[in-house]
Write a structure and sequence with these properties.
With 132 residues, the chain is of the alpha/beta class. It is 45% helix and 12% strand. Helix 5 links the parallel strand 3 and strand 4.
């Protein structure tokens, strides 16, 4: 497999989970702001303002390839908070990697490790006080 095929296969496996996108819509409908904070990569010369599959689903999309920062650098979490106009303790951060949760927790965010999306959404609903 050539490198471009490998990268394409990886990208397919990293597509947003539909149940999480639906939850983001529910959360936004309740008047809360949402953000997607993603470590990604862009092909050389890719436009910085390209469309994203997450555009319109979240209030803010923070992409590592655009910002030049990556999780778990605390600066990228603070950037997402700044763009949402919230403080870290007002946030719940979900990620499937524990290493990405640690800096968010250190900043004061509530964190949820996403192993099983259904379990994570149940935990999120408990924190928010409404079903997602």
């Amino acid at each position: 497999m050539v490198a471009t095929e490998l990268m394409a296969a990886l990208a397919r496996g990293l597509a947003p989970r539909e149940e999480m996108l639906a939850a983001a819509g529910t959360i936004r409908a309740r008047g809360l702001r949402t953000a997607a904070l993603t470590n990604n990569w862009a092909a050389a010369g890719a436009a910085r303002d390209r469309g994203s599959a997450m555009d319109g689903v979240f209030d803010v999309v923070v992409e590592s390839s655009v910002e030049g920062l990556r999780k778990p650098d605390p600066a990228i979490y603070l950037l997402a908070c700044e763009r949402l106009s919230v403080e870290p303790p007002e946030c719940v951060f979900l990620d499937d990697l524990g290493a990405n949760l640690k800096p968010a927790r250190a900043l004061g965010m509530a964190t949820i490790k996403v192993t099983d999306p259904g379990d994570a959404l149940t935990e999120l609903a408990e924190l928010l006080g409404f079903s997602v």
